[in-house]
Each structure stands twice: as C-alpha cells, then as structure tokens.
Amino acid sequence: MPHDGESRSAPPGGQLPGTGGDGRTGRPHSTDASGTAPSGPSPDHPAGPSGPGPAPASAARERVLAFAGVTLAAVYVTSETGAGLRAVEWAGGEAGPYALPPDVRLPEQAGGATARARDGGGAARSRAPEALVADAYLRGRPLWREGAAAAEEGGVPTAPLGALPLGAAGGWLGCLLVVGETGEGFGVEQREFLERYAEAVAGRLRGEADRSAPSPLLDPALRAMGVGSFALTPGTGLVETDPALLELLGIPDGAFDGKTDTLLACSVPEDVPALLSVIEPSAQAPGRRELEFRIRRPTGELCWLRLDCRVRKGAEGAPQRVLGVVSAAPVLRRGSGDVARLQWLTAALDDATTVRDVSRVVVAALREPLGADRIALAELLEDRLAVTVLDPPGPAAWPELWRAEWRSEWPDAPISALPTLQAALRGGRMSLWPAGAALEPGLTGIGPGGLAVLPLPARNRVAGVCLVGWDAPHEFAPDERALLTATAGLVGQALKRAHAYDAEQELATMLQRSLLPRRLPRLPGGIAVARYLPARRGLQVGGDWYDVIALSESKVALVIGDVQGHSAAAATIMGQMRTAVRAYAVEGHPPDVVVAHANRLLTGMETDLFATCCYVELDMEEGDALFVRAGHLAPLVRHPDGGTEEIAVEGGLPLGVLADADFPLTARALAPGSVLVLVTDGLVESADLHVDEGMRLVRASLAAADPADPGGMADELLGEEGRREDDVALLLLRYDGMRVRPVRAGWVVWRLPDAVMHARRFSARTLRSWGVVEEADTVLLVVSELVTNALVHTQGAVRVDLTLAADRLRVTVSDSSPRAPAKPVVVDWEATGGRGLFLVEAVSAAWGSVPVGGGKQVWSELVVDRAETDPAAGAHEEPESGPEETTDPAPGRSWGMGRARNRGRGRDTGRARLRGSGREASGPGESGPW
Predict the structure, then answer these.
(1) What is the reported pTM?
(2) Going by C-beta distance under 8 Å and a sequence separation of 6 or more, which residues neighbour residue 354?
C-alpha cells in the first residue's frame, strides 16, 4: 500500500488516481500537484534512525489513513448546478480495480444508482464508486461495500469501498469516498473513526465561503479531531510521531528523541505492560488492538488516552509494522449517555486523590463532551463555598460578581448574592435553566445560553456544587441529563473523599515539619543544605530525619537517620530519636558515645521499631571528620577535583536491636572544596532499583552537579520523583575551610591559694603575645571572676581557655558542675559578694553557659583591638612554674554554645570605669552562688 504522502486537489475534468486517460484503470499516481515525486517517510517506509521524531502533516495523515485501512480518500462536493458532485481533493494513491470519476451525476431517484451498481461484470465494478457516492449522498447515511462480496460477482478480488455523506440532514454538502485494502474490509473501529473523520471534514467544509471550490479539507479536519498518530517497527526502539501525539503526551516541541522508551515514560507504571504489548507484539497478537491508558503530564495532571492500532505481519506471521492513533478518551467516547463514559469517569475519579485532582477530572468529563463554555466546581465548607476550579481560569471569562471576589488563586463563590444557588443546595436536586431564564446576573453570566446547577451529594449531605454553562442556546437532551445526574453523584463522593485525604495530608505535613529542623545553622567554613520528600503513597509522614548541630564555633555534627515504617508511630519515634541525639551531642560526648546512648534509649522504649543512623562530627578548622554508622548507608564525598567516593565507614547494628552494641569510629580528613552527602534509602532503593545501582546513580549526579550552588546540587541529587516510593532525606555539606584560623591557649587551674593569680598571669602573657593591649584589663577581670566562681562553688578540675578569632576574644572556664551559674536576685549595698556575674555581663559583648560532658562551660566574648607586635615577643619571657599551660585546643568543647545575655550593654562605660579604678583581684572575688 504505497502512499505518496501528499493530498491533492482534483482539477475540473481531470482524472483521479486509478483512472487512465481512456477511463480504464491505470497505475496509481506517485507525484504531487507540481508533478514532482514526493519525499519523506511513509507508513511502509519509515524514517531512519537519524531522522525519528515528529513527521510532517502529510505523513501523519497517511499513517492515520493506513490505520483505518484506507488506500485512497476523495472528497466530493455539490456542484454549482446541484445536479451532481465534483471531486475537489484526494489523498493516498491506490484505487485498486476502481476508476474514480472526477464527477458523479445524481440520478432522479436513489434507486437508480443502486441498480446500476448491481449490473455485474466489469462495467459494474468500474461504476461502483460513482454509484455508491450517489446513493450515500441521496440516502444521507454511510454506505459500505465489502471487497469479499464484490469478488463474488466477478470472481476478481476487489477492494472495499465506503461513502460517507458530509453535512447534516436537509443540508448535505458532499460525500467522502474511501477505498480500502484489497481483500480486507473495514472493521467496526475503523468505520467509527471514518465517520468522525467525515464529520470533521464536513465541519471544515461548512465554514468555507465558496463550497464548490474549497481550500484543502483533509489535513485541517484531521488536526481538528485532535488525534495523534504513530508508526513503528518492532524491535528497533524507534517510533514516528506527529505533533498532535506529542501534544497529547505533554512533550514539548523539539524535546522528543524518537524513542519508544520516552513515550512509555509518560504513562503511569501500571499501564506500561499493556503498552509494551503494543510496541513489541508477538506473532500471536491480533491484527487490531484497542486499549486505554493513563499519562501524567509535567504539571502532575493525570489524563486518560485511548490507543487504536493495527499490526501488519509478514509472510511467516511475524509482526513487521505497527500503525496506530491516539486520542483523548473524551474524544473517542463522545456519547454523553454512553456507559463507557461513566466507566471512564469512575476510573478517573478513583485515581483522583486530592480535591485538585477531582476538579481536573470534572472539567475533562464535562466541558468538551457537552460543548460547555464554563465549568465551576466549589466545595461546601460549613456555610461557604470554596471554589476548587474555574474553567476557563481567567477572570475575564466570568461575571463581574465573581471577579470582585477574586483575591487568590480562585475567587470566593458569592453565595449570598445567588439565591438560586442557595435553593439548589438546600433542595439537593439538579436544576437546568434554558436560554433566557430569569436568573440573577451572577449566574446568567455563566450560562447565557443554558445553565446546569448540579448539587454534589455525598452521604446524605451536599458536598459541593458544579455549574456548567453555555454561551449559545443549548437544549438538554435526555441522555445529557442522565450523564449530568450520574456525574453529580460520582463527583460528590469523590470530592468528600478527596477533602478527607487533603486534611489528612495537611496534618501529616504539619507533623513532619514540626519534627524536622525549621532551618539549618550558619556554619563557619561551610554551607549545609537539606531536603526532605514524603512518600508518594499512603500517609505522607515517615521516619526519615536529619539534623545539623553546632557543637562549638569550629565543630559541627551532621546526623541522618531512618526509623522503620511509615506511620504516626514511626514519626513519633523519629522525633524522640532526633531530640535524644541532639541532647547527647551538645553535652559534649564523642560520636560513638552519642550513638551508643541513643541506642540504649531506643532499646528501652516500648516499641518494636528500629532505626538506622549515620553521625558525623566535623572539625571546620582542620577538616577532620569522625564517622559512626548504625546500619545506615555509607556517606558519599565529592572531592575538589570532581571525583566521588563512597566512604568506607565501619558499621554497627541498627539502633534498638541490641542494648550493648558497639559503634566503632572511623576517621577521615576532608580537603577544602569537598562535598559530604548523607542520604536515606528512599533515594537509592525501590522495587525496580537495586541499592547498589541507586548509589551509582547518585554518585554520577554528584559528580555532574555544580558545587558552587549547594541547593541546586541537592535538587539534582533528588532526581526524578517518579521513582520515589519511600520518603527521602538528604543532607549535604560543602566544606570550604575557615578563612580565619583562631588561635588558642589553655591553662589547667590547680586548687592553690594563689590559683587566680596564676590564671591572670597566664592570661596576661597570652594577651601580650597576641597583641591585645587595650582590653587586657577587662579580659583579666573576666578571668578573675569566672575562675574565682569555679573554685569557690564547684569541685574537681578547672580549666581556662582563651580563643582569639579576628576581633573576637572568648574566655571559657570549664568545671565539673552541671549547674548553670545564677545571678543573685537582690544585692544589698553592704554585701561583700554577688556582683561578679553582673560585672562579667556589663563588660562582655555576650556571655553564657552550656553543659558539656562531665560539667559545664561558662564563657564570655569580648571585642578587642590587636596591636602590631613582634610574633616572637612572648617567646623570651621567663616561664612561670606552676600549673600546666597549653596552647593546644582543649579536649572538651572550647566554645560553648550558650544564649547571649545582655549583648554589649554598658560594655564601653564599664571598661572605662574599671580601667580608672585599677581594680585587680588575686584571690577569691565577689561572685554570686554557682
């Protein structure tokens, strides 16, 4: 069935394909109107691998005709005199044994043409098309002539014919003649399709100014039907499509690569097996296939499409070519009273989970099939109507009363100004208002030609209302009334169910957000970003969690974990575990101890759930990291050169399995520019994705992502949401290293009578070596007060640490008491103590205390100016014998993260006053109770 790929207009008095100059059957033409041989792919000669993708309109038309079993289609219109029909356009190229006449004379009676068609012999066969066209035009209904029946008349195989009148009763405009393949007839699906095609051609013809010489009809009519076509050869993985098919699937122009896998990716996973049986048919597959499937557009909208195809097989029965058409389900099932439409609506509403999904289904089910101009759907919430969808969505298409309430995505339904709507909601029955009905302006503007008000019943109450309006006068047929009534009942139940689902998901989202950090802390020398995505199925709350804990000014802890299950119980355990890990971490415990304590806590809970966890403590100055892994996925790292690696961290048992489980430490150094990534299994594992393959894909995405944008890098790692079956947590840290490296010095205070004096002398030497001169007296005052309080009110070791970073000096005094210092409520003027903490507060930019492992730290932060001094100046001083002095970082947390109190209040005046007094404490000073 070679097609030449062009539609042509028949010149007056000329010959159509299959007709020689003498009226006998000739070979089909293979040139277009200009006389040149056509180019481009045909249904039997597909484009090569270098040129897949959307084909021109002519190739799309030829594929559609090939699917319908048509080798030649010709359009006949009424002549100017009305005495006959004249051919004005034809497509295809093979007319079989028939000679298609350019003109058809209309007999005085319909029976005359039929009688001539039954004369028998070659003459009858030569006039069969003319007789069939005339008969169909006069009778006003499609006529079909099967090839097998014709073959019995003369013993010669002939092709089937079909003649379909164009127009409507009392106003026929012409006829569409189709010639089928020799030896095959037109099936039921093909006849239905050709009848719709004839209606589309008639619609185009009806709009022509000169119907006797119209512009091309066949291609525009096909585009108006919204039918996409495809052709493929099984086993190649390539498919030819047209723009109409790509538009149905939501694929942008120029974004299609011509592969069948790209088309399959648009459908929902449950429908892929059925589509694969079409793309790769077996030898036992039937010659014709019909199925309905669902796609999800890039906007998230779920749409139903219908596919009809035919399979061409070779001499040995092997499939060689698949030709088919795809259309939106409402187009292919356009009968408003058809049971199949209600079946489609039921299935579509069953897939609609949210109120927004239900709204989309209602628009798809009513607007196009009923030819409506406006659709409004509103949900009844107590005494008000919440609009869920308006179609068309623009304010200009709706009455002024509605536009005045348009303050967000949708306006509030002005129910108080619509008494007709109020009455319909109270009665709960459908109301149909024809054109010219006396309605308030707010409803007349929705449907001036007709309005349907559909209350949506659900469980003995009204869940909402749907308004369907027409601009042109509209009559409500009985089958249309039945469709509206059935639709209202189905939509009401679906709307109530979707509202409950939305409320449940909102509650789950609020719960999940309350259990996860609202924001991550700003870190010196790095940027941390996190992402969390709930599961797409079931309750959207799970057990995945993450946290970033600032342990000090230079150390940070990264935590990620996953509690077994997807339920409120899993979320509750997740919140408890996150709180416990944070509490143990800020107390100053090392990573393995933090995880061990969390494990004991979960083991002691009354639950059967377990959890996995990965804990990382990172020194932002040095880049040294300590890893602990409890049954969790190994962390990933992207090196500065772009290479990726899965860090080999020795693992332990999941939390909650064994109370005495060990959790070994793994040390690793990170270079500035490295990116550390922690993920949960929802990102790398699913029913069709093995965890090893998932980790490989994440590493590939990590290597390709741009580390300059950590947020964009995290989004790249999440990949496609389509494969997400589990909730996903992702924590990413880009380590840059600290630009300003703090300098530190520490002193262990011995409990001697002159201990405070030694602490002051150590601090004075350190300040001179650092070039801090002007604020030295203030710093020594703070050291005296904090050390004195620690010696007087605590037992055990006391330590002083000084840290200088840029213009900030921090004094930290550590002791073994867990109790925070407390300022006295009342200090009498005769009291000899209780003023120490007031002095510290007055001269400090910020101060506070924080619990650490084995005690607490009290700290004070001051702003200092550094003088230009010789770095080696302090090296020649005589060392003072006494307690141990160190310049190494303290083994504990040298920078406690407490709440700033009285940040900078009275700092300048306090310093001036103290410098003038020359006050210096060398023994136990004034202090409030510890």
Answers:
(1) 0.47
(2) 498, 501, 502, 505
